[in-house]
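Hi P.,

Sorry for the delay on this. The queue was packed all week, but I finally got your sequence through. Input first:
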Amino acid sequence: MVMKKMTALAGQAKRQGRQGIISGMGMLCAAAVMGFIFFGQAMHVSAEQDAKGRITVINRDGSGDTEPIPDAVFICCQVMSLKTAVTENGISQRSVPLLVGSDGQEIQVTEETDPGELAKAALKMHEEKTLKGVFLTSKTDADGIAGFEKLPDGIYLICETEAGADHLPSAPFLITVPSASETASGNTEAGLSYAVTAEPKTQPCGILNVSKDVAGNAAEKNRAFRFSAEFENIESCRFTASDGTEGMYKSGDEFTLKAGESIRFSLLPAGTAYAVRELDENSYGYTTESTGTKGMIRSKLESLAAFLNKRYQETDTPGTPVQTSDLQKPERWLLLAVLCVSVLSALGLEEKQRKR
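Then the structure:
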């Protein structure tokens, strides 16, 4: 049953380092009538009747085709516990923080709190085994659904730690259990709903592959040519080089490729504009040819920027092997030396006969 009315406080959105990934923050008001509270992005929310806390995440492609995304891993971490009370004046909820920041202080959920920072604190405390509240992990099934059950009253951080294939992780968000419904019906306790569904908008991504090759009788196989790649509104992305090197690449930084080498940039939001440039274009006697140097990242596909540098010796016809001069061949020099010795010997013999 879709809730007709809910109390929701949405925070200001801000970019989290790559296009299309939005994070925000809402404000939890303790001792106030609360409904569903969410942060991170626009999403459809509904609540059902249930006697126990349950959060269902439906992970679908946010590009418009609503395709379910399997094999994405979500965590559900309780960041604040709630003491819920129903009075004549409505529903009041008293909150108790459960996370501790890097400064050792309890993290209060306010309008200024960043869900991304909450996720960092939660994962750190989970690793250190110092979490006080619930921490659960769930992977989406073939229908893109992940679920968390038997949840006590509280505010929960939902964070996608591993994205499904060809998609970026959705932004983290917060959700309250129970949520307040307008009227009590069925087994919903005093107007509270203990089952909530959230649908984060997951963005598809693509790959850019940059390759290098050389041609010509004077081409150098071991020369490293300099390149740079720029991505619109993207500070950094993951890269994997053909030699196995991998890491994070900062947009606009310089990298090098030799003949036969390539580099793949991944986790790029679909629709991102890119431009690749060879800094050594038409240098060292080479003529540079290229294709696909500018374009847009395509959803779930790989784009290719290919560079070919050609260099030939000036005295040769392109495509033909270098011809070595007769005078450059060792056997020619030896034959010439023997001929010279023979001539000199003959001249010396003739001179001796004349003197006699």
